[in-house]
Amino acid sequence: MNETRDNPAISRRLLEMLENERNRIARELHDEIGQALTAVKIDLEMAATIDELPKLRAHLAESLSIVDRALQQVRNLSLDLRPSILDDLGLVAAIQWYLARIRVRSGLAVHFRQETVRPRFDRDIETTCFRLVQEATTNVVRHAEATEAVIELTETDKWLWLEIRDNGKGFDVETVLQQAARGESFGILGMKERVDIVQGRIRFDARSGEGTTIRVQIPIGPVEEVTLR
């Protein structure tokens, strides 16, 4: 028996620790490494103004280019760990921002449709949904061989519905679940545990060669028995 899966309190604590660690790393990357690289960049810019050393200037110009790329990599890593837009502007804005990055990085045609009323949801719910979108779209890009994906976020009186589907090669759900039980694959298991923590439900519909659909249902009001569509 997997104690973590069977005990939501333990799962919640583990994920809280993970999110706290991501926040810490994001702050350190931005405040420490980012500031250090900025200082180096300023020093190199000053050295590059020495007119009597044209060769040195050319060399320093290349160094500045390398530092610029390193700074951008640090910013990207910090954003991937915990995008500030999720805390500042909420789930919808964070998904829109993230999918724009996916389009640029991968070329995947990914579409986002949302029908929500409230501007913000509970922090745990926003984090769960964002991480699900992040995990699912990463899998689509890396493994699905898909050309298109659609993410839909819908709010009703008592539920928040998240659906992620693609036109890729699909997979055998039972096989992947068995692999997860043996400790060979953690993607689906991680998604299920995240949804369990917010008392939600998740269903995977996939067949080899027919794409994949992930449906998530999370309570945001008084919970009544509802069949997962």
UniProtKB/TrEMBL annotation:
EC number: 2.7.13.3
GO MF assignments: 4 iron, 4 sulfur cluster binding; ATP binding; metal ion binding; phosphorelay sensor kinase activity; protein dimerization activity
CC annotations in GO: cytoplasm; membrane
Signal peptide coordinates: none
Reaction it catalyzes: ATP + protein L-histidine = ADP + protein N-phospho-L-histidine
Histidine kinase domain residues: 28-222
Keyword tRNA-binding applies: no
Localization of this protein: Cytoplasm
InterPro entries (UniProt xref): HATPase_C_sf, HATPase_dom, His_kinase_dom, Sensor_HK_TwoCompSys, Sig_transdc_His_kin-like_C, Sig_transdc_His_kin_sub3_dim/P
CDD domains: HATPase_UhpB-NarQ-NarX-like
UniProt xrefs under Gene3D superfamilies: 1.20.5.1930, Histidine kinase-like ATPase, C-terminal domain
SMART domains assigned to the protein according to its UniProt record, in alphabetical order: HATPase_c (SM00387)
PROSITE patterns: HIS_KIN
Key words, A-Z: 4Fe-4S, ATP-binding, Cytoplasm, Iron, Iron-sulfur, Kinase, Metal-binding, Nucleotide-binding, Phosphoprotein, Transferase, Two-component regulatory system
Cofactor annotation: [4Fe-4S] cluster
Entry function: Member of the two-component regulatory system NreB/NreC involved in the control of dissimilatory nitrate/nitrite reduction in response to oxygen. NreB functions as a direct oxygen sensor histidine kinase which is autophosphorylated, in the absence of oxygen, probably at the conserved histidine residue, and transfers its phosphate group probably to a conserved aspartate residue of NreC. NreB/NreC activates the expression of the nitrate (narGHJI) and nitrite (nir) reductase operons, as well as the putative nitrate transporter gene narT.
Protein name: Oxygen sensor histidine kinase NreB
Biological source species: Desulfatirhabdium butyrativorans
